[in-house]
Amino acid sequence: MTGPLLAVDPTSGDSLLAAFGALAVLVVVFAESGLLVVGFLLPGDTLLLPAGVLCAAGGRTGPHLSLWQVMLCAAVGAIAGAQLGFLLGRHGGRPLLARTRSGRLKAAAARGEALLRRYGYRKAIVIGRFVPLVRTVLSPLAGMLDVPTRTFTLWQIVGGVLWSQSLVLAGYWLGAAVPGIEHYLWLLVGAVVVLSLLPLLLHPRKGPRTPPDGG
Fold it and tell me: The pTM is what?
């Protein structure tokens, strides 16, 4: 048991899925949805899409995952992780962010704060789920910026379900419709990352604003 566990690459979605199945989805999505620093090291988009593919095609070339288990683990991980991140951000997130030396973390935090102010709380919380790196810092930032708990909780659930389930179902559809697609997952993951950046790239730049009454 020790050998296979040591061989697992925690930054590789394929490796985690092969070793731990749907449980990997729960743990990784939970961490990536709100744990500063740790969440940056783990795959999110690069885990959910392959998980969906393996639910449909894994029996042919790799581990077979249960679709309902993956969808449930993805939703629970996304919602619970973001809520914990929000609470951590509200109770000590600023000192942690100030102490970090990670340029990527600070840049993502700046982008997340701009997103919250530009779009308003509701839209930003949902859109932020689909933006790599921002997804990890947005929940703690919402806590730091005193976003109302009720507003955050409602819209992070909406965003978490939309993000996690859409990627799993997209992977499942591809795995069922395209024979051999599991051999080209790296191309699919790259496409997802590019598409996830479009909301920020296409939105016209506006001056920062503070959302009234919770955005």
Answer: 0.78
**Cα dihedral 90/92/93/96 (nearest 10):** 180
What is the amino acid identity at position 13? G
As a whole number of angstroms, the distance between CA 33 and CA 191 comes to 21
For residue range 16-44, list pLDDT tens digits in order: 777 778 888 998 899 888 887 665 566 67
101, burial (CB in 10 Å: exposed 0-12, middle 13-18, buried 19+): exposed
- Cα–Cα distances (Å) from 84 to 16, 27, 178, 212, in that order, read 23, 13, 38, 25
What one-character DSSP code corresponds to residue 204? Answer: P
Q: Tell me the pLDDT tens digit for each residue of 77-93.
A: 999 999 999 998 888 76
